[in-house]
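Dear all,

This email documents one entry for the complex benchmark we are building for the journal club exercise. For each entry we list the sequence lines for every component of the assembly. Then comes the predicted three-dimensional structure of the complex as a token string, followed by one or two observations. Please use this as the template for your own entries, and keep the labels exactly as they appear.
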Amino acid sequence: MSAIMMSGKALAEEMNSEMLEMVNNLKTKGITPGLVVLLVGEDQASQTYVRNKAKRAEKLGVHSLVKRYPNTITEEELLNEIDRFNRDADFHGILVQLPLPKQINAEKVVNAVDSKKDVDGFHPLNMGKLLIGKPDKIACTPYGIMKLLKRHQIEIAGKTAVVIGRSTIVGKPMAQLLLMNDATVTMAHSKTQNLAEVARTADILVVAIGRGNFVTKEFIKPGAVVIDVGMNRDADGKLIGDIKADEVAKVAGYLTPVPGGVGPMTITMLMYQTIESAKRI
Amino acid sequence: MSAIMMSGKALAEEMNSEMLEMVNNLKTKGITPGLVVLLVGEDQASQTYVRNKAKRAEKLGVHSLVKRYPNTITEEELLNEIDRFNRDADFHGILVQLPLPKQINAEKVVNAVDSKKDVDGFHPLNMGKLLIGKPDKIACTPYGIMKLLKRHQIEIAGKTAVVIGRSTIVGKPMAQLLLMNDATVTMAHSKTQNLAEVARTADILVVAIGRGNFVTKEFIKPGAVVIDVGMNRDADGKLIGDIKADEVAKVAGYLTPVPGGVGPMTITMLMYQTIESAKRI
């Protein structure tokens, strides 16, 4: 027996077609969805991420602009730029690529983005709407995982879900989304005792801890749906997840591969929320 | 063996002394903490709640104003009133007594209160700050429960906590506060299967479901800390909690009574947050 692989790559492709149609519809109404990405400094990883986002936007007919600023930009200057894009009707999504240089308070910058244009879903107002159960913009990674679960018609209501990892951008919003869908949700983390035992109660297990191959078959209830959010490099520089895929695949019912599982969904949901944001104007 | 009773009444008294001192300190600096309560219509229960809040404020030297509006007030008129108090430096806390009449969108009204004056902790921005783990104003009932746990030196880190009930004003913020304190937290609710079994994993069990005597001894891990948020009336009109106290007290290590447990903490934290809000001006 081997787990069914849940391909984020395949779903992203499906959603691309759907989004292309959404964009074309908008264009017939004279609206072109626009996304501006603010990039400060020369961080290599950030450059790559931003390039990928711009490429994807272009593929979907979303107008994208990458605004580059020197590493020496002041907080005030950056806040002024955000204010400008908040008021610019051509852009329905604003993304500030993190990390930011030390002289800038990242929290303040994230909070300055108009929550309606916060297509990343990181703004505290959007986090609050999610906690209240009336989400608007949603953090892209957990939102993408929900899409994957729905695509595979995974039943969530009444099920036991365990989320390992409590980051603001993955674990916490993930737990709220599962709760909204009537799962009984346990939030586990580095201070959790008997972590394998807790994980083994899960019909749906989401792992986002950033430790390569950490989750072994002892963590898995037979037949469980297992979601691997990890993106780690092994000693050889190979991309690996938080889950020891080879052995877990023999116990789980469903599993997301790394790469090609959760990864492709994050950028997909970023585009999706940008287009949705444009629809509401 | 019988559970140690965690008296909210006693802690509220202690905190009253502390708060009196805080208010006196503020007054020497020329600041009098101010709370305005907006009351629409003639709802009997609301009248009582508002009276109690005003009485408590007076006792602590907090300036309080109860603004009454007829049941026929429009949403726009009420929003204008809120705007006025948002800008009135004499008031550090604004509380809109719920429920509101049908013609008024309660969500819109709650969102209109300046989040810095949202001493109830219901504003989505405050909910979001809590989810992010950087709380400002916190929903008063769960905040009061945290004070009770700390007062009794209950260890939270690494413990298993179960919250039954997922309301916006109790269950959800409660789960976040326990998580922030490094508990492993399960959010359970009406759709949870094997609820007693889930509850029995809890070192700390918080019950907020609004069903009298629902939780029996079968739900309790021996020695657990059990918090009863329920306020129900039995057939004779007597106030009872969600927990069958007589039998649970024989199994639990700690238990909050009803009345006199969680109840007195809610209004206490409302005052506390009003005073804290005044300190920051």
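Observations: DSSP finds ten helices and eleven strands in chain B. The radius of gyration of chain B is 19 Å.
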